[in-house]
Amino acid sequence: MIEKQKLKPISGFPEWLPEVRMVEQAWIDRIRGVFESYGFAPIETRSVEPVEVLLKQGDTDKEIYALRRLMEEEASASEADYALHYDLTVPMARYVAANLNDLTFPFKRYQIQRAWRGERPQEGRFREFTQCDIDVVDTRDIPLHFDAEMPAIVYEVMQALDVGPTVTRINNRKVLEGFYRALGVEQPHEVIRIVDKQDKIGPDGVSKMLTDELSLDGATIGKVLDLARVTGTKADVVERVRALGITGDLLEQGLDELHFVMKALESYPEGAFVADLSVARGLAYYTGTVYEVKFADDPSFPTICGGGRYENLVGSMLNKHLPGIGISIGLTRIFSKLVREGRIAPTRKTPTQVMVCYLPDASYEAVNGVARTLRARGIKTELFHEPRKLKQQLAYASNKGIPHVWFPAVGAEGKHEVKTLATGAQADADPESWLPEG
Amino acid sequence: MIEKQKLKPISGFPEWLPEVRMVEQAWIDRIRGVFESYGFAPIETRSVEPVEVLLKQGDTDKEIYALRRLMEEEASASEADYALHYDLTVPMARYVAANLNDLTFPFKRYQIQRAWRGERPQEGRFREFTQCDIDVVDTRDIPLHFDAEMPAIVYEVMQALDVGPTVTRINNRKVLEGFYRALGVEQPHEVIRIVDKQDKIGPDGVSKMLTDELSLDGATIGKVLDLARVTGTKADVVERVRALGITGDLLEQGLDELHFVMKALESYPEGAFVADLSVARGLAYYTGTVYEVKFADDPSFPTICGGGRYENLVGSMLNKHLPGIGISIGLTRIFSKLVREGRIAPTRKTPTQVMVCYLPDASYEAVNGVARTLRARGIKTELFHEPRKLKQQLAYASNKGIPHVWFPAVGAEGKHEVKTLATGAQADADPESWLPEG
């Protein structure tokens, strides 16, 4: 017997009952469907990467899980160097760098896979979670059309999953960096890192950090906060940035890009995509367009999708020019929220569409034959394998949410009958032609 | 830049190019389809279990990977106690024990998930691999019909995957234990452990180990080897065991069960299922029917599927009676063999069915409109996002194996045309009605 304690859930490692997993699985199928409809090809990467590869990239303040062989007395040097990946972007970048000569560019991949972080679990934060990513990597400059298409694909996914209204906040790192540089700031990435915290600590907190950590003067901080206040649902939002009176080549390039992306998304419902100049994204590797998606009706809930353009992440592994752009859907974060709020309402504990009863006066060969006939016709069919009382067999079907039960014909004169449990309706049926509802 | 070394494959952690992953993904979809057609519901378990849970079960001589938080100076007690699971059976047993009151029994689940073992990689053995498992667990005795249905489902999967001829070898632990006990052997499980090695070390090796390790006498070893020589494709194979002249209640019960299972499988092609009294399965937890599946044309290749009946694995976690039966498909082992042998012949690097060209004299809105129309009709449609030379766009489509390219109409008078790359055929097409081949 195992200690009861050992059977308990492990904080941050979610698991679902079968009826909930069936819904999550249906979500994943729909996400795959949307990704494939845009021509993204699936890959999976191994779950582990060399620690060096993980630490050299953006997210180095996140805790990661290294592997250790349990039975080995001394840590094997090679294995101690591997750790579970904390996202799917860095493994994808490594995969592209490793398979450069075998891939066709632009390389468009989707990846639906688990990732791990050794963080303290809290609302929306898990230690093991599933991400659904799309990325494009090319050996030459990637056209801006992709910057507009990526969030549109994710918007379509959110619609397909029916998760409620979302808002995709869009910004451009060139605008931020160009603006800060034009103000005379020498460490624009440090300002970006601090502005990224505005959602959590507010403008006053940002102001204090910019003073304390970067010793920026009041006028500069005022402009930084002015920029972070700019939002707009249309492409002309860039004029509000220009109205702040700061100019510079990088800033102008960023504003042109932001204008292009917002313009390309104008056909979507108003408010679905918002240019928000306070959006920074913490990761160091973004260089242009950045996105984050939130629940429109729960803005304090963490970001549910995020991404952006990274010119150097892949190429830095090889000293080549390999720009990329991608976006990641935090499936576990979204799904677990809806589960917690009771918005996932599973009705069935099994995919079975019809259960064939095995009654004491029937032959197993005959009832199994009915099941095989139905299955061969694509109907998900379960056989009750024991000739128990009918009441018990029906209770099983009902408890699992199986919609139909089949009573096989007995004897040469007998007729097959099917009962629909929801309505109680019962009728003659032919295994060669009957079709289930649902 | 990352050391070249760090970009290399890690031995035992396979990865596939997109075109190969597409085939593997299609395999998984087909496996899911077969499992669901028999009424198995999907679950996923977390990737980690308490070390104690993993070590108390059968496979304790396998190396396992424990987790270690990288940045923490001192190992956190709680986290050091977790390790990656090495199969899906033990996690399933823990899941059932933990969720006992929320599951409907008989609980029938499938699980397609990765597992990890810290073994030295060799042919067919990986450190990270995907298993596809089905199991039934009940709170009361499980009817023998399941013992026949489980290998039949796996046979159907192997047919669906077209992996070539396989043979499912079937035995029953009660036959082995009953036979050995009737011979006066006091440690029948030790004999089972040694007989399990016969595939690798041959009958002489088994004989030597039985002498050296268990001090069995020659006559007893002779009978043990006699039993291990019995095979047969029909239910009457049990008579050949009885002809060895050994009797006992447990042995008779096992022979009746083996007879039942072989009889129930007689409608399948001869040789697909073979009773083989040398099959032992190494795991301690099996108590009745055991299976292993091999490639019929490559018997020295390791077992590709394995499983059996375990009366006490789940219940032992709770001190309850919770018998189970299951079988596991070694997807990575099977798939990687076929890849290595060149029997996976991918033709496409993308799911895209048609690529819409973006020619310099077209408007992006118009070509994007065509793509959206096609996509809305369920056609996987990729848009070439840059108005590059037609030749370059066609080369991209051809390199990725995209079957069709679409030339959007230009101007009010223009007509849409579609070219099929394999044949070179080109024809007028309407985005509202055109259908791709393949």
UniProtKB/TrEMBL annotation, chains A, B:
Catalyzed reaction equations: tRNA(His) + L-histidine + ATP = L-histidyl-tRNA(His) + AMP + diphosphate + H(+)
Enzyme Commission number, as recorded: 6.1.1.21
Binding-site list for L-histidine: 87-89, 117, 131, 135, 281, 285-286
GO cellular component: cytoplasm
Keyword Ligase: yes
GO molecular function terms attached to this record: ATP binding; histidine-tRNA ligase activity
Keyword field: Aminoacyl-tRNA synthetase, ATP-binding, Cytoplasm, Ligase, Nucleotide-binding, Protein biosynthesis
GO biological process: histidyl-tRNA aminoacylation
One matching Pfam family: HGTP_anticodon
InterPro entries: aa-tRNA-synth_II, aa-tRNA-synth_II/BPL/LPL, Anticodon-bd, Anticodon-bd_dom_sf, His-tRNA-ligase, HisRS-like_core, HisRS/HisZ
Broad enzyme group: ligase
Start and end residues of each Aminoacyl-transfer RNA synthetases class-II family profile domain: 31-346
KW Ligase (keyword) present: yes
Assembly with partners or alone: Homodimer.
Family: Belongs to the class-II aminoacyl-tRNA synthetase family.
Protein name: Histidine--tRNA ligase
Biological source species: Marivibrio halodurans
